[in-house]
């Protein structure tokens, strides 16, 4: 309340305001004045107010408080001097459950924050998002083997202090699928060749393969860049030309080491003729040797000739 008085109101040191830690408050008034004050926001001028205290030494304020003070000389009191001290407090965030993570590559995890004062927003930021990243809910995604630290942060407001929690994340490689076998394991063959592929690892679900004139390249995770999919863990291929077979076994976010196997296939040249019919065959590149020529099988009674071009 505003009161006309010849007595000057007390002053505060430090001044009212927002502080990030407890403050020691000193009151001062004109010489000879007694200072009366309250810490509950009530009026120290009110007769019989049990909350009124007589000031003698500075007092500590550890939480948000409204201080009201008057100076008294004889029976006369000053106007009330009010000061509000806002002491920001910790939001009290903590990590519930797992506080540091070891996660296999391409698997996921979740940071669970205990937020007793329901402050918001809480942000998540990775020191190494190429390894591990956390979305706005604290869900962790992994992309490469390595280490990262997820910062869980509240920026603070007029009531609560800023707070940051650090959550270490280590991403490790999965144990690769084992038991991938290819039979025969490459070599030189003079006819159509059957190749059997299987993976006996219980985690395997499919076979990825590529047949080309050179090994298929791999991506940053060590997976074939191009491939055909066989949706089981066993298969048979029939090879009729020289090639490099690139093959991997695949499971759920886990795979085998790739295998690159070279096959040289020398398919024989054959022509079958029915008796009584005549054919002219043109072989553009000719026969390299007499042995190649003898690979041609001709039925009895047929006539044929070799033409060059």
TrEMBL record:
Residues 14-80 form the GH29D-like beta-sandwich domain. Gene3D superfamilies: 2.60.40.1080. Pfam families: CHB_HEX_C_1. This is GH29D-like beta-sandwich domain-containing protein. It comes from gut metagenome. The lineage of its organism: unclassified sequences, metagenomes, organismal metagenomes.
């Amino acid at each position: 309340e505003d009161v006309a008085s010849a007595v000057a109101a007390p002053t505060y040191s430090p001044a009212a305001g927002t502080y990030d830690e407890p403050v020691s408050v000193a009151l001062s008034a004109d010489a000879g004045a007694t200072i009366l004050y309250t810490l509950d926001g009530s009026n120290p001028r009110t007769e019989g107010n049990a909350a009124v205290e007589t000031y003698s030494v500075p007092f500590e304020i550890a939480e948000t408080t409204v201080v009201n003070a008057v100076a008294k000389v004889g029976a006369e009191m000053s106007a009330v001097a009010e000061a509000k001290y806002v002491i920001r407090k910790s939001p009290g965030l903590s990590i519930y459950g797992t506080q540091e993570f070891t996660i296999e590559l391409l698997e996921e995890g979740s940071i669970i924050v205990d937020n007793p004062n329901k402050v918001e927003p809480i942000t998540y930021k990775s020191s190494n998002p190429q390894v591990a990243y956390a979305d706005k809910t604290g869900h962790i995604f992994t992309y490469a083997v390595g280490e990262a630290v997820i910062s869980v942060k509240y920026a603070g407001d007029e009531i609560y202090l800023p707070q940051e929690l650090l959550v270490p994340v280590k991403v490790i490689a999965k144990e690769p699928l084992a038991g991938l076998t290819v039979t025969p394991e490459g070599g030189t063959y003079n006819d159509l060749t059957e190749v059997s592929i299987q993976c006996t690892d219980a985690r395997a679900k499919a076979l990825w393969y590529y047949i080309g004139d050179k090994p298929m390249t791999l991506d940053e995770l060590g997976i074939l860049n191009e491939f055909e999919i066989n949706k089981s863990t066993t298969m048979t291929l029939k090879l009729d030309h020289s090639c490099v077979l690139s093959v991997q076994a695949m499971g759920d976010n886990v795979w085998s080491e790739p295998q690159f196997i070279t096959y040289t296939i020398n398919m024989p040249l054959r022509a079958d003729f029915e008796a009584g019919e005549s054919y002219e065959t043109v072989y553009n590149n000719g026969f390299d040797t007499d042995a190649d020529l003898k690979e041609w099988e001709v039925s009895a009674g047929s006539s044929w000739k070799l033409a060059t071009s």
